[in-house]
Input
Amino acid sequence: MRIVIAGGGTGGHLYPGLAIARALVRLDSTIRPFFIGARRGIERDVLPEAGFPFELLDLHPLYRQQIWNNWKTLRGAASAWRRVGAIISAGRPAAVIGTGGYAAGLALAYTATHGVPLFLQEQNSYPGLTTRFFSRYAREVYLGFPEAERHMRRGRATVFVDSGNPIQPPPTPRPSREAARRAWGFPESGGRVLLIYGGSQGSRGLNQVVDAWVARGIPEGLYVIWMTGKAHIAQYQRRESGAVRVRAYLSPIADAYAASDFAMTRSGAMTTAELLAWGIPPVLVPLPTAAADHQTANAVALAKAGAAMHVPQASLSAKRLDEIVGGLLAAPERLVEMAAAGRTRARPGAAEEIAYRIVEACAGGGASK
Output
């Protein structure tokens, strides 16, 4: 069974597709995922190492601020349409899965106009333009946040599924908190461990606040794992101490999750999905420049559910961070309540559920194999 997965441009759109692809192969080893992405997206670096066949096309986003560059979008769309047609014709897929982003649009348009079963996975609480437009043509739409459904149009046969976001779930059995703390050089018991990171590249805004906060002196009994991003590590490495670990990158990040009691992070869809799955209550500081301000929508949704604290970056300072952390340390029941609320939103098995539903839908619809 051949299944085409279209999406990318950013890791937030590519990694869910990879998680679904791996779950599909685990479910049925005869399934052959094929990826369509953009030459200028993160997929050019990730897909060659992922082990799946792929093709990267000359795809571009809509240039809203630099409209004179949209000639690139139109030129790329014309050539990409022909290549998508050739890819589909080379072996008609049982399904096309769209995971969003500008890298998915052309493939989904071809799919919708040529009768290939279409499935979508939307990561955020406020869906992107691609998913909003094509939801009416999809058989099923898998939601990372149930709040996203109200922003999309339902086709006559469209089913919305509150699946959660497809992530790499925590291992079974999970590493012990004591062993994880020991690996980081922290005491096995007592105190709290705070994880701080601003995405895979780090965050200049968060790093500056954390730097000033650490310089003030962190609370007694608090231990910090701080990922700065590779571009920023040289500037902040000096803050390394017995209570503060400063790292350029966290790989595997599971080692940090296993040791942490709470976190301060951006509110990207995959980050929040991982934190919920690990039962780590987060303080969410949305990236203010995220497209359509979707990170704020994610943070607000989780805060309303009692699963997170939402702190706008404009209001975050070293003093404010000290107040937030001090308040949580003084009221540990708040962390317990947030973790419990987060567990009701956690979907660690999302990738497997999505894979199963797609295979069942294709089999029931008599899709070619």
Residues 24 and 355 are 5 Å apart (CA to CA).
